[in-house]
Specification:
Layout: H1 3-7, E1 10-14, E2 20-25, H2 31-39, H3 43-50, H4 59-66, E3 73-82, E4 85-96, E5 105-112, H5 121-135, E6 140-146, H6 150-157, E7 163-167, E8 171-177
Parallel strand pairs: 5-6
Antiparallel strand pairs: 1-2, 2-3, 3-4, 4-5, 6-8, 7-8
């Protein structure tokens, strides 16, 4: 998959309750939608994603979130259609942690609006990011997850891929090996 394909990525999926959701690449023009999605999150979801309280995103953070290169950073959003138009209800992204030839490790993160949690959306986003990541030469996804975020830990465990976890006092570091045959290192 080339950069243009990723930057124009769009697919329609169904949630567990059969509601349609569009998974697509984030766009620079999504700043207002992204800001509104963030404002709609409950404090607990913000804490699980950012490991602390946040009231709003800065202009710089909005640029970083919506203007990605689709080489070292890939970001997908989940959208639903409402009477007022499209609304972002979640998202997933990865960014490369080391060299680009090929990139071998990327950090991955997700946030899902509370009304859509438990509907399989994080798993759908992860499946799509796994496919893109493999095609871009990424061998491992890594994430730091709060101990209390059991739902996200289950999403990672259910990939069917080798997963290694290492707990610290405040979080669990998760490594997902994108190729089933890759043996996790000790």
């Amino acid at each position: 998959m080339n950069i243009d394909d990723i930057a124009n990525y769009t697919v329609v999926e169904k949630l567990r309750d059969q509601r349609p959701v569009t998974i697509r690449a984030i766009r620079p023009g999504d700043k207002d939608l992204f800001r509104e999605a963030f404002k709609g999150l409950e404090a607990g979801s913000i804490y699980m994603r950012f490991f602390g309280p946040r009231k709003e995103l800065t202009d710089r953070e909005l640029v970083q979130a919506t203007e990605v290169d689709f080489i070292r950073t890939v970001a997908l959003v989940a959208c639903v259609q409402e009477s007022a138009g499209e609304r972002i209800i979640g998202g997933g992204r990865y960014f490369v942690l080391d060299g680009p030839d090929p990139p071998s490790t990327a950090e991955i993160a997700f946030v899902i609006e509370e009304d859509y949690q438990g509907q399989g959306l994080a798993s759908i986003l992860l499946k799509r990011l796994l496919r893109i990541g493999r095609e871009q030469g990424i061998a491992r996804f890594e994430a730091d997850v709060l101990h209390a975020n059991k739902k996200m830990l289950r999403v990672f465990e259910r990939t069917g891929l080798p997963v290694v976890t290492k707990a610290s006092s405040d979080s669990i570091h998760v490594t997902i090996f994108l190729n089933k045959g890759e043996a996790p290192s000790s």
